[in-house]
């Protein structure tokens, strides 16, 4: 028997599924952040003075017992994923989708209940009374459906706009790459039998920005630790169930479990000619373990591409950012994207402001973690002659060109 389509599923089942996926995604963020204790997350939110995140409410959000409020969700994401506005906007849209499913589920329950009561009322009272009750139910159901359709259309339109922006950005990147001669350099690297690279660099250096472009130009997949967690949990793999168990208890996922996921991913056909590791190894122990794993299959990391920026530059990138109060997706920068009119958004004219998370304290904490945990990894690869360092300063296309040129020279 064929599986039911989305339209045939009971709205309550759809909502339960979406809520579970939502909770699992929050768990992945928690792991990516290093699985801080619920009490630590709650204390950080209390210090910021925005939204209260009690330990019990965080536990309920991670377990999928109920959909938290939008403000609670965004603050939790802020604490787990940092001040990245685009990440929070993605979570805002994700929350709206789950909320829509919840409303559809509630509407179905309300629709069913009055119909049941109407059958009894027609037996007990006049026919006109039953017809009036049924008419009221239909009107309410139509109102709920229309509201849900309107919200769905808004979500779809927002997704289309975001997709168009990403497509335009990618197209411009390829045009810039062609003009600068980046693509011929990439073609020379692609002639190699295999290309196995890991990305490194301090906070704000651009690893996450560069990885998809390098992956596209070199025609090898980029593998991110967070995505490994997400795909295994969503796919209900055996190791994914183990990962979910650790996250559900608020515990760190052991390195050996991470390595099992990585080993399985590297057995996929698309990694035959190489890969780009993004987000790991994060500490010295992981670096040694990853080397051991790869050396066992004669597929060690050939080069570690390190994007170098200064502490001051990282501070400038974050602290100089300005956000439009009318639309938080509209961004400006006092140095790199100066608004034409002081204090006003170039897109809509709304007032610009500085977010609380764009502070020196936030950047300083992230740098402290990188210096103590990840910088020793860079030093290890440097001592082994596998480090390729390029400046992370400049337009995205310029950094991509710089990286490929340096890799081409390194590989000879």
Order of helices and strands: HHHHHHHEHEHHHEHEHEEEHEH
* Helical content (DSSP H or I, runs of 4+): 55-70%
Strand order of the largest sheet: 2-3-1-4-8
Shape: globular
The CA-CA distance between the termini, in Å, is 58 Å
Search tags:
412 residues; alpha/beta; five-stranded parallel sheet; three-stranded antiparallel sheet; 15 helices; 8 strands; 8% strand
Can you give a write-up of this model?
The chain has 412 residues and is of the alpha/beta class. It has 15 helices and 8 strands. The chain has a 5-stranded parallel beta sheet with strand order 2-3-1-4-8, with helices on both faces. 25% of the residues are buried.
Topology summary:
Blueprint lengths: L10 H22 L5 H11 L6 H9 L6 H12 L3 H40 L2 H54 L1 H9 L4 E6 L6 H12 L3 E3 H10 L3 H11 L6 H12 L7 E5 L5 H12 L7 E6 L2 H9 L1 E4 L6 E3 L18 E2 L6 H24 L3 E5 L4 H16 L1
Parallel strand pairs: 1-3, 1-4, 2-3, 4-8
Antiparallel strand pairs: 5-6, 5-7
Helix pairs in contact: 1-5, 1-9, 2-3, 4-5, 5-6, 6-15, 7-15, 8-15, 9-10, 9-11, 11-12, 13-14
Task: Summarize the entry for a quick read.
The protein is α/β, with parallel strands linked by helices. The chain contains 15 helices and eight strands.
């Amino acid at each position: 028997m064929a599986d039911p389509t989305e339209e045939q599923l009971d709205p309550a089942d759809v909502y339960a599924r979406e809520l579970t996926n939502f909770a699992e995604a929050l768990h992945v963020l928690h792991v990516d952040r290093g699985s801080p204790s619920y009490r630590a997350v709650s204390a950080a939110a209390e210090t910021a003075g925005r939204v209260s995140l009690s330990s019990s409410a965080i536990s309920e959000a991670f377990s999928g017992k109920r959909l938290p409020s939008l403000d609670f969700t965004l603050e939790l994401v802020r604490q787990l994923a940092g001040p990245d506005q685009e990440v929070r906007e993605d979570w805002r849209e994700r929350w709206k989708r789950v909320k829509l499913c919840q409303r559809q589920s509630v509407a179905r329950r309300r629709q069913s209940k009055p119909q049941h009561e109407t059958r009894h009322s027609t037996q007990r009272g006049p026919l006109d009374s039953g017809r009036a009750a049924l008419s009221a139910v239909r009107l309410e159901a139509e109102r709920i459906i229309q509201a849900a359709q309107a919200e769905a259309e808004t979500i779809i339109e927002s997704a289309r706009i975001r997709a168009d922006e990403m497509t335009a950005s990618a197209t411009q990147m390829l045009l810039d790459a062609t003009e600068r001669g980046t693509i011929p350099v990439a073609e020379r690297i692609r002639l190699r039998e295999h290309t196995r690279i890991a990305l490194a660099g301090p906070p704000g250096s651009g690893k996450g920005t560069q990885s998809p472009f390098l992956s596209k130009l070199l025609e090898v997949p980029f593998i991110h630790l967070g995505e490994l967690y997400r795909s295994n949990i969503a796919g209900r793999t055996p190791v994914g169930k183990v990962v979910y168990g650790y996250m559900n208890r608020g515990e760190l996922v052991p390195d050996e479990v991470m390595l099992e996921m990585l080993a399985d991913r590297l057995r996929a056909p698309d990694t035959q000619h190489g890969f780009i590791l993004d987000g790991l190894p994060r500490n010295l122990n992981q670096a040694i373990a990853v080397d051991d794993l790869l050396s066992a299959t004669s597929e060690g990391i050939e080069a570690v591409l390190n994007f170098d920026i200064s502490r001051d530059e990282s501070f400038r990138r974050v602290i100089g950012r300005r956000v439009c109060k009318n639309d938080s997706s509209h961004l400006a920068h006092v140095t790199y994207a100066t608004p034409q009119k002081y204090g006003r958004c170039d897109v809509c004219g709304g007032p610009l402001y500085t977010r609380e998370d764009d502070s020196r304290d936030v950047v300083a904490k992230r740098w402290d973690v990188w210096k103590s945990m990840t910088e020793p990894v860079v030093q290890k690869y440097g001592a082994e002659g596998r480090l390729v360092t390029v400046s992370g300063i400049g337009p995205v296309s310029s950094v991509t060109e710089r990286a490929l040129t340096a890799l081409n020279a390194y590989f000879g």
